[in-house]
Amino acid sequence: MTITKTVNGSEATLKVDGWLDTQASPDMQQELDALEPGIDSLVLDFADLEYISSSGVRIVVAAYKKMDGALVVKNVSSGIMSIFKATGIDKKIRFE
Amino acid sequence: MHKKPRLSIIIQIAIVFILAMSLSFCAGLLFGRHYLMKRAVEVNMYTANDLANLVRYYLEPLMPIDSLSDEHKEQTRTLFREFCINFDYKYVYLYMPSEDGTLTYYFSAAQDDAMDEEIQRIRPFGSTIKRDLFKDEESILKGEEDEGYEFVDDRYGNVCEFMFALKDQDGNLCGIIGIDDDISDVRKDLAREQSTLLVLMLVYFLVAILVSLVLIKRFVILPIDNLSKRMRRFIEDKDAGTTEVKTIFADEVTDIHDSFNKMAGDITAYVKDLKELTTEKARNETQIEVARKIQRDIVPPDYSLTGNGCDIFCVEKPAKAVGGDFYDVFYISEREICVTVGDISGKGISAALFMVMVKTNLRNYVKTGESLSDVLRRVNREVCASNSQDMFATVFLSVLNTETGVLRYANAGHEQPLVICNEPYYLTPDTGMALGLFEDAAFKEEECTLKDGQGILVYTDGVAESINTGKEQYGMDRIKETVHGLSASCNRFEPEEAVNAVIDSVTNFSKDMEQFDDITCVTLIYRNNEEDRLHLKPDMASFEIVKEKMIEVLGNTEESRNMIMACEEMFCNIVNYSGTDSISVVFRRVYDLFSIELVDSGVPFDPINAVIRNKDFLELDTGGMGIKLARLNSKEMVYNRMYGRNHLIMKFEIPS
Questions:
Q1: Measured between CA atoms, how close is A59 to chain B, in angstroms?
Q2: Which CATH homologous superfamily contains domain B299-528?
């Protein structure tokens, strides 16, 4: 898994590529924790995300809580979307 | 259907009455009139005859008429006039007809003065007229009759003309005495009398019709109406009981009522019986359904076990709702697993009850660790002691040592099991005796040694004795051939594959036939090749090996990645929560199914039946989604807890 971070003013974009599995989740969590205090909205770009496990879904929810809902998830493939739907988080998270 | 116009039966009867009455009136009028006229004429004819005799008496000495002197002629005519007046006839005259219709008048007199004068003028002595002769006139002329009459209506009035022959001493006809009787009064009287009679008859008939209609209505129509109402309201009034019909005599109407009452009673009783029967049947069906469910719990339709050192797959297909076949698979110790297959004589609830007794006894005695022959001997005694229905059970009892591959077995009258290997063959155990027949039956324990990948297939007679439409039995040879066919196509026997191949083959063989016996098939394969098994350290890094294997078999697609995710979730669960010191993983591929068995020696946890609490969205960052995702993204998950280990098999469909 590789994460590319871009900051545009107070909005940060994390582009997550590859496999966000149980082992990779702590790295993702770390990236989230390391966001600068001035950041008040977050974009997760999953265009090249191939795989997500429940630990990855948990981090998406954690990001939502950290940003007080100012979270957008972009470019989700249908396979991963089915996992979001199965867990029910598609009802709260904004997808683009 | 064309709807007929409705007309009450009483109206129909009235119409028939009136028609009949009208017809009889017309007939009465016609025939009555004719008859009465004839009677009137006959009565008057006597009087007229007397007068004719007087005329004869007077004229006979004066014959022949032509030669009468004028004085006699005048006297005779005057006499005729007097006759008219005294005898009250309209005309009296004497004439002579001839065959050509010429009438020659001699004397003519009329009662009425004016008429008499006129008649003297137009019918003087010797005057002639010509007309068609009357029928009676012709008869008299021919000498056939001496008298006759004819009704004549003309300008001289309505008269009955009586005719009497006047003959000379030689009997030759000299003339006809005509006496005309005025009948216009008679006709009037007749008409009056007839109309009086008509009115009387009309009244009589009307009264008769009215009375009969009232009676018919009271004694026929009303009871029928009443009956018709009861028939219409039969269901609503079915508890109202029977009613009596009020008629004086027992007749057809009372018969109908009696028949209806009987029918109503019969139907009510029948419906009541039917209702009771239906309720009873529904109750029985519920009971049977419950029994079936319990039996399905005791002997599940299929069962698979992938244990330490062996793989087992069992299928039971009952012919009826509740069957008598059974199988049982259980561990005696960590190294020994017992496989039992049995068949109870008979089917249905009784067979199922007997089956439970045999199965429970077998399990209990096998667990004591006695030799299998002793187990069968003791169970046989138990069964004989409580077998009032003379049922019996054939049983094949076997115990596999999963370390050595030694299979101990004992037979109680059951089918020979097939040894599964590259060249399958039948075991030939001592036949033994079916349990429940003889208390002192003896059994023999024997043994054989299975090599890795070899196994046995145990079945019930429902397999071997299945028949096709040609009444041919499936037979043991076909079982062997089917299994042999498998060995040619793969290098590793999977029990599920072997059982399904045999069941499919049997089903196909006896297609179009109703399954007449329970079909049970159990396969046990001995596995001691530990190389198939991965022993992994309980951390997530170990999952990389599983992941690679899964990608190898399932490919790396969106679909397969979700399957890997399902497996990762369960693996992660074991790593995080079981406390195990190692995780064994076994991969298996059967047909298009890829199964992964995860075995750990941690705390017992059944993810299949675990209750998952639905968490709120904001709690989801603490987890609780893994099991749900695993269930959703796997084809099936099977869990067993055996000898301190959790066995979780996850099955995935290999994408084509």
A1: 6
A2: PPM-type phosphatase domain (3.60.40.10)
